[in-house]
Design a protein that fits this description.
The chain has 319 residues and is α+β, with helices and mostly antiparallel strands. It is built from 7 helices and 18 strands.
């Protein structure tokens, strides 16, 4: 357990306890400090203080007892990871299709979190008092591409704040059925659980979260398919998959929202076979940009199309 003994300075008079501690202890996030206060781990003037909003007075002694992070429940499992960038604060991974991000019913292990626990080891400083990687966003199991994960509580809070205000740059490669008209545009529509199928997301009139996707057609393949670039203005569950399906241009290989055409027209039989049997949604997180939560430096990462999407692109080019 680490103990931090502090004295409230003159300029912090009447400041909230949690706010001042977040400034005085930059290695701890404000949300973590709030939790410590409510758990009774903070004393002010010798008395336990459980109110994060307590207003401070100059000269008061404040002691914060920070317990050592407990081991995460998921077990570390070593596996090959495509690490694009890593420092003491965060790690950027190029996730392959088929890898689940976080343990859940049906996928209790062999996830990205399990792999990160093994890869990062003691460099994980603990998120919310638990020694675990800080997942601030996810991409679907069968979507490939770039993902940033926090290694410290402060980095987790800084990245989460950027996602909240939608300042993260995210661009996806998408291969869709048909040719969108117009070739570029914006799709809006709140996304929530489908009333008809609770396992699916849908554009809903009430109860959903506002969502916005910008798209531009990069290439067309006859009238059968197109390669699109999709830029997220928001980040909702299945956002690109739902928005493109709403245009009538679902992702190739998407068994939930794809709705492939009944007829393929006059295209080579081998190309038709590739399209019919493509095993996952043809979606790849190609660009990820954000401000480093500790240094403020602008970071931008790009990931080329994985081999399966390169093969799909090559097959479509034969049309």
């Amino acid at each position: 357990m680490d103990k931090h003994s502090l004295t409230v300075p003159e300029d912090a008079t009447a400041t909230r306890l949690d706010k001042w501690l977040a400034e005085a202890l930059p290695g701890q996030s404000r949300s973590r400090l709030k939790a410590l206060i409510t758990e009774g781990a903070v004393t002010v003037a010798g008395l336990t203080e459980r109110d994060p909003a307590r207003k401070l007075k100059a000269g008061q002694a404040v002691v914060v007892s920070v317990p050592a992070p407990v081991d995460a429940t998921p077990r570390p499992q070593a596996m090959d990871l495509a690490v694009v960038f890593e420092d003491e604060y965060l790690i950027v991974i190029d996730k392959p299709a088929g890898l689940v991000v976080h343990p859940a019913p049906g996928n209790p292990d062999n996830t990205l979190v399990n792999a990160l626990l093994a890869h990062c080891g003691d460099s994980l400083q603990g998120i919310g008092g638990v020694k675990r990687p800080g997942i601030v966003h996810r991409i679907d199991k069968d979507t490939s591409g770039l993902l940033v994960v926090a290694k410290t509580a402060a980095a987790h809070e800084g990245l989460a704040a950027q996602f909240k205000v939608h300042s993260i740059e995210r661009v996806y490669d998408a291969f869709v059925w048909g040719v969108p008209k117009p070739a570029r545009g914006v799709v809006t529509g709140a996304i929530g659980r489908s009333a008809a199928n609770r396992k699916k997301m849908a554009i809903v009139k009430r109860g959903g979260k506002a969502a916005e996707t910008h798209y531009a057609t990069d290439a067309v393949f006859g009238t059968v398919a197109a390669h699109m670039k999709c830029r997220l203005a928001t980040g909702r569950t299945h956002q690109i998959r739902v928005h493109l399906a709403s245009l009538g241009h679902g992702l190739i290989g998407d068994q939930v929202y794809g709705a492939r055409p009944r007829a393929f027209g006059k295209i080579p039989a081998d190309v038709a076979t590739v399209l019919k049997t493509f095993p996952r949604q043809a979606l790849h997180a190609a660009v990820l940009g954000f401000a480093h939560p500790a240094t403020g430096k602008a970071l931008m990462f790009e990931s080329p199309l994985p081999t399966d999407l390169q093969a799909l692109q090559a097959a479509l080019s034969a049309i």
